[in-house]
Amino acid sequence: MSKEATSLTITVDKSHILMIGERLYEQSIELIRELVNNAYDADATRVDVTVSGKEIVVRDNGEGMDIKGLQQYFNVGSEEKLMNPRSPRFGRNRIGQFGIGKFASLAAASRFEITTQRGDFAARVVFDKARWIEEGDSWEIPLTLLKEDKRRGDGTSVRLVELKKSFKPEDVTQRIAEGVPIRASDFSVFVNGYRVTPRILSGNRVPVMNGTKYGIIHGEIVILPAYRASKDDMGIEIKVKGVTVRRELFEIASWGKAATRIRGEVHADFLPLTSDRSGFIEDSAEYKTFLKAMKKTIEEVRFAYNQLASERENQRVGRAVKEAMQRIHNALIMNPEFSPFGVVPLAEEGVKGIGETGVQVAQKNKGLEEVEIEDVPEEMSSPSDGKNEASEDQVEKPKKEKKPSLRIATPNAVVKRLKFGDAGVTCCLDHLGEEGPECMTEGTIIYINRDHPLYKRESKKKEAHILNIARLITQEISLMKNPQNPRDAFNRQSKLLRDAFKEE
To answer: Which of 139, 225, 430, 494 is deepest in the core (most CB within 10 A)?
Structure first.
């Protein structure tokens, strides 16, 4: 064997190029998204996608290609976009990287045609899969020069023909909405004449803005209303350069039904992508930093969700307490001897009574009358004990009875006050722990324990919830009248409950 230096010629089989392209884009619908992103990289302001059973056409008004641009376009593995990551006109972050997407197009169609124009140059390239493979070692693709069409202007049109599968316009629209930066200014995409718009989610919004040493993480996470909860499209879209790479649930997956209400998107352009752009290089320092930042963000979303759930629950509890109090007030009017506050004052129609109670006698078949029930601030303190000496000319005002202070254990307590003339009773529904008392009274303040197992069981249904609250309030009111005789108190409570829930 000769010891003289020799060289080897490296060749690449055409079928391997096609196979790699097809594997990178296993879902053929991704090819359409890729073509639209190419138009975005080319500074197009409008892209029209036409989807039919016979062909798919993606047409843009971007900068178009001259002969050098076409050569670059068909250069497999070109580093053009890596060397020039910004588009010349709008300075867009270019999305494409590998330059193999056009070969993958043949996974969905047997042939594609590219018609492009830039300035006074116009041409058409036809890429036929079967013919290209038959030509063996030749890598040339037929190119036809065209006359300049000034009405058309600069831009590129890609036409996929002889489709191997059918595409639904709604599926194409959804993928473009997720995988194309349609929120970018001066850029719009139309599918069969209808503009693709970003999804608008209604609900409570949690802004995301985290700075890292690799770049900024920004976006928005939305807590959907309960009636919009769904298992479809769960999670948060992670976008790189405006394109959704993957959906992630993070720790939300352990939230149970609450996870079906979380949607949103976060942008992290610094994340390194896998070769098929369907995931991230998870052992990279950038991705680990991203996960750490997102853990903090998810904790903020959890806090916001809990606050929202508490607010909604408090609204439900508040309505139940109000109705229970209204019914008890009517029952005390019917049984004034049971009232520990004296006779409840009544007023004639249209006239306020003593202490602005303003309660009218309920007329038959008119249902429950509205009575004066107030929301009470979370902090109530006793009047000041300080004494101010009045001058001789001043008229001494009668001293008001000192009100007991209201102790609220948690920020989520529901507090309402029912006035009986100058007197009244305050009801505070608070979280006192499962081992705490079911209810208790201090002065004229009735505490109801929302953590008590019986309360939690009865609160699941509206009617049972109202009845249970009324039971506890009438129990405490009955004990206020004459605590020495529990049997009388029990009878008073039974009578009040019966009259409070009379069907008339």
So the answer is: 430
